Amino acid sequence: MRLSDIRETQPLNLPHEESLALIEKNLSEALQTLKLISEDRELLERIYQVSNLIFQVLSSGNKVLIAGNGGSAADSQHLAAEIVGAFESRDVKGFPAIALTTDTSVLTALSNDYGYENLFARQLEALGSPGDLLIAISTSGNSPNILKALERARSLGIKTISLLGKGGGKAKGLADIELIVPSYRTARVQEAHTLIIHLICDLIERYLKNKYPTYRER
Fold first, then answer.
1. Which of 28, 53, 64, 198 has a Cα-to-Cα distance from 128 of 20 to 30 A?
2. In a 3-state reduction of DSSP, which class is residue 211?
3. 21 belongs to a structural domain
C-alpha cells in the first residue's frame, strides 16, 4: 500500500492536518516533560541515589521486588528483565529482581482471597526479606495496593523506592526515596518512567561492572 493510499482512506472524523497537529502536540508535551526533568537538579540527584541504593542492595546479596498496575506493571517487568538479564552489556551476570505482576495464579488467588488492595503486600510477606528493596511504580500515586505495599515493606524491613507522577498522590512521602515526574498526564508520566528506568539501569550496570570486573563471579 502506498502512503497516498493511506492518506486517501483517513478517518473522516479527524482530518489529516488535525491528526498531525495532535502528534506534534504530544511530542511537544513529551519533550517539555523531559526538559523539566533534565533541569531539576534535585530530581537528578535522586535518580543517582536510587541507582546507588539498588547497587548496594544487589551487591549485598539481596533482591529487588517491583510492583505496579497496568502500564506500571509492564514497567515493573521491564525493570526486572534489565536487572536479571542485561541492560546493554551482554557479558553481565544476572542479579535477582522479581516483578510482582507476572504469576497469574498468584495474582488471581490473592485478589480473590485477600482483595486486590493486598495483592503486593501479601507477596512481600512471602518473598521479601529484611535488606531487600521494593520499587513501587504508580503514575497517580493513589493505587491502594501500592500504598499497602509501601506500608508493609516498611514493617518488614524492606527498603523502598517509588516512581510517581501527578504530584505524588497519596504515596508521596511513603518511600525512602521517591522520583516524581513533573506531569499530570498519565502518558507523559509513563514515558518519563521508562526513560528513568533506563537511566537507572545504565548506572547500576556500570557500578556492578566496576565492582565485579569479570561480571561472572560475585
1. 198
2. helix
3. no
Could you list the residue range(s) of the whole structural domain that residue 126 is in?
A: 35-211
Q: How many domains does the chain have?
A: 1
pLDDT higher than threshold 80 for residue 7: no
How does DSSP classify residue 144? H
Residue 108 in grid coordinates: 488471581
Interhelix angle 186-211/16-38, nearest 10 degrees: 40
The distance between the two most distant Cα atoms of the chain, rounded to a whole number of Å, is 61
Please, which residues have CB within 8 angstroms of residue 160's CB and are 6 or more apart in sequence?
Answer: 133, 134, 135, 136, 150, 153, 154, 174, 175, 176, 177
pLDDT, tens digit, 9 for 90 and up, residues 149-195: 999 999 999 999 999 999 999 999 999 999 999 999 999 999 999 99
User: Average pLDDT over the chain, rounded to whole?
Assistant: 93
- The predicted pLDDT at position 218 comes to 44
pLDDT band at 2 (very low <50, low <70, confident <90, very high): low
Q: How many helices (H) and strands (E) does the chain have?
A: 8, 5
**Residue 204 domain-assigned?**
yes
Domain with residue 42: its CATH number is: 3.40.50.10490
Scan for cell 517487568, then name that residue.
Answer: 77
CA-based end-to-end distance of the chain: 54
Look up residue 41 and give its amino acid: R
Does this model's pTM top 0.85?
A: yes
pLDDT digits 0-9 by tens, 50-86: 999 999 999 999 999 999 999 999 999 999 999 999 8
